Amino acid sequence: MVIMGSTVTKKANTKVNFLIQFYLILTFVCISNCQDFRVYYNDNNQFQYLISIQFFNDISFASDLQQRAKNQIGSLPNSPPGSEDDTDAKIKLGNKLFRDINLSANQIQACVTCHPIDGRSAGMDRQTTPRGTFGQLGKRNTPTILNVGFNSVLFWDGRRNSLYDQAIDPFINPIEMSLSSESELIQKIQNDPSYSEYFVRAFPSNPNINLHNVRLSLASFERSLVSNSKFDDFVMGNLLIFNRQELEGLNIFLEVGCTNCHSGYLLGGNNLSKLESSFLYNPNDFGKFEVTGDSNDRYLFKIPSLRNVTLTQPYFHDGSVTSLKETIERMNEYKLNRRLASSEIDLLIVFLKTLSDKTKSN
Fold first, then answer.
1. What's the mean pLDDT in 94-113?
2. Fewer CB atoms inside 10 Å of the end CB: C or N, the chain?
3. How large is the greatest C-alpha to C-alpha distance in the chain, in angstroms?
4. pLDDT tens digits for 253-293?
C-alpha cells in the first residue's frame, strides 16, 4: 500500500525547489552580465558557457511545460473523495477481506490474486484475462487497483460508479470468486472468529457483520491505494526532476491531443469512449451495450487511466496487445490528430514511465 505524503510536506518541497531554481537562474544571469566573467569564458571556458546557456534553456522549457501540465492535467490529490470517513480500523478490515482466500469458492483465491499489491506489484496480474476459481477464463483484462478510489467509472463497461457498489461483485461473479450469493459471503465471514475483533474496532457503534459494513471496509481499503509518481513531483514544482527526454515526451503528449481522452489528474479513468475499429481488438465484446441493451452503447468502453501504464501490460480491455509502443501506434491511427513518428512514440513512453508509482516495477 502506497500513500502519498502530507500536503505540508509537498508545499515545503515546492518552496525549496523554487528557491533552488530561482538562485540557479539568478546566478546565471549575474555571471552572464559580468564583463570580466564573459571575457574569462570567451578566453578559457566557452564550452562551459554554452552548457550554462543550455541549462537555462532547459529550465525555461521545463517551467513552461510544468505550467501547461498543471493546467491541463494537474497532480494527484493526497486522498480520494470519500476517504474523510476512512479510519485505520476500516482500512485494516478491508485489507483482511481483500486478502482472504476463504471468501472464494475454491478457497485458494482472493481479491489480491488478480490485484497483487505487495512489494513491487502494481495492482494487476498482467494476464491477458484472469482465471476464476475453477479455471474459468475471464472476458476482460484486469485493470490496476492503484488509484481506483479516484474513479467514478468502474469496470470496462462502466456498470458501477462507486467502490461501495462494486465491492461485493467479484465474490459472487461466476467467473471470478464464484460464491453462490451475498448471503454465502456473509456466512463465511461470520463463521471466522478472527473477524469479530476487526468489526468491533472498525464499527464500534454497530459491529455487525453485514453487507453494508463489508462494502464500507473494502471501499476504505481500496481508497488507501494511492500512487506517488515522479510526474506529480514535477507538477508540484520540482523542475529539475525530469530529464530532457521526459520533458520532450510530455511536450508531445500535450501537443498531439492525448489529453482529449486521457484527461484530468488520472489521465483517464472517468469516461467512456467508442472503440469500433477491428484493428484495435477482437470486436466480439460489445462493451456497455451488454449492460444497458442500448444500441448507442455498442463498443463503448472505459478510457483507462494512464497512471502506472508502463507497469500494467497487456493493454486494451481484451488484453490483446503486450507492447506499449504497439498500443500507442494503434491509438495514434485511431484517435490522435496527427501521425507520430517512431522516435516520438519512444519519447512518449519515456514520459509515461514518470506516471508510475515510484515504489513499483512489476
1. 97
2. N
3. 84
4. 999 989 999 999 999 999 999 988 777 777 789 999 999 99
Residues whose CB is less than 8 angstroms from the CB of residue 158 and which lie 6 or more positions away in sequence, other chains included: 272, 288, 291, 300, 301, 302
Fold of domain 83-223: Cytochrome Bc1 Complex; Chain D, domain 2 (1.10.760)
Residues 6+ apart with CB under 8 A from 345: 325, 328, 329, 332
- Please answer whether residues 99 and 194 qualify as being in contact, where contact means their C-beta atoms are separated by less than 8 angstroms: no
What residues does each domain of the chain span? 7-74+229-269+304-353, 83-223
Query: Coil, strand or helix: which one is 166?
Result: helix
Beta strands 300-302 and 272-274, pairing class? antiparallel
| List of long-range contacts for 53-61, beta carbons under 8 Å, 24+ apart | 55/24, 55/28, 56/25, 56/28, 58/244, 58/247, 59/21, 59/24, 59/25, 59/239, 61/247
212 annotated as a binding-site residue? no
30 labelled as ligand-binding? no
Per-residue DSSP letters for 265-325?
A: TTTSSS-EEE---TTTS-TT--BTHHHH--GGGTTEEE----TTGGGS-SBTTTT-B--HH
What is d(CA 361, CA 120) in angstroms, rounded to the nearest whole number?
5
Catalytic residues: 176
CATH class of 7-74+229-269+304-353: mainly alpha
Grid cell listed for 245: 527526454
258 is in an annotated binding site: yes
Length of the chain: 362
Please report the DSSP string for 122-163 in residue order: -SS---SS-B-TTSPBPSSPPPP-TTGGG-SSBSTT--B-SH
34 is in an annotated binding site: no
Indicate if 83-223 has the same CATH topology as 7-74+229-269+304-353.
yes
Share above pLDDT 90 across residues of the chain, in percent, rounded to a whole number: 75
Does the annotation list 115 as a binding residue?
A: yes
